[in-house]
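User: Hi! Is it possible to get a structure for several chains at once, not just one? Here's what I have:
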Amino acid sequence: MRTKIQTLFFLTVVILAAFRCEKKIELSKFEFGGDFTLTDTDGKPFQLSSLKGNTVLLFFGYTTCPDVCPTTLSKIKQALKQPGIDANGVKTVFISVDPERDSKQKLKEYLAYFEIPIHGLTGTKKEIDAVVSQYKGAYMKKGVGAGSEIGYLIEHTSYVYLIDPAGDIRYLFAHDATPDLIAEGIQALQH
Amino acid sequence: MLVTGGCNQAGSSSSTLHLEKGWVMEVPEVQKITGAFLTVENRSSETEFLIGVGSNAAKSGEIHSMTVENGTMKMDKIDSIEIPPGERVELKQGGLHIMLIGLNNPLHAGDQVNLKLEFKNAGVIEFPVEVKKMDGMMDHSEHHNH
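Assistant: Yes, the chains can be modeled jointly so their relative placement is included. Here is the combined structure:
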């Protein structure tokens, strides 16, 4: 009798564990994206393919971005702290869509605040536009209504692209993705 | 824009409005703008409007809305926020919020900042709030906070 109860208990634990481990994330392979070269915050050419072998979280933003960009960077920081994540194997790539205001130095200081392994990239507007289009993103400079002192804001794609160690896009995190979901996506690639 | 006029009232409550969950986001020092957030409850029987914002920490303040359409973030400066009688309106990350523009000094977590909120009926209310790290306020981080 006791053995039966123990077996039942064991099976329940296994079933519960299986449900817990069930992945909520379905990875796909996207037919766009790919390699590109932009300029890093030290002024050196940076090729995305130099990160092959790592999991990459790529997104477009700008340092005056009031909400989505800093929040996304904070969420990535939290995701990287989660157990089971090899944070050293995850590189974040932040591509500025505001070359007019985001100098390399400003980008560098801004990104340093978040204390994650990150590559801040910029380029000429033409170079940036080409990468945005390659990743099927979009951005648009926009005045913020009459009398705003903020100058301009940029409406931009707010997805975070999850890129596997081979360089393929495998998932698009929406702006409201939780650190848990981001961690789950990373884990799906790391295990 | 600094808020002027109205009947000045210190504190987080007037007889008709209750303000809570106020905070300002710590941002990297190179960033000269930041977001401020709070919840406003209208305890009166009349519709209230937040019509102006400012702070001692910044040269100006604006009310902004934020939406995401088809994966693209869109933000607009708006003139006012309507708070119907008996309702609460949350100004939060990813939604309606206050932008503080032209920070006078870098803000660090733990600093106190005064928000000046101008309401159509209640006048100007000063609301002292704390600067917090952005990841400290996200729902998920609750378990990880010290």
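The interface with chain B takes residues 63-64, 66-68, 70-71, 74-75, 77-78, 81, 106, 109-110, 112-114, 138-139, 142, 144-145, 147-150, 153, 155-159, 172, 174-176, 178-180 of chain A (CB under 8 Å). Residues 62 and 96 of chain A are 5 Å apart (CA to CA).

User: Great, thank you!
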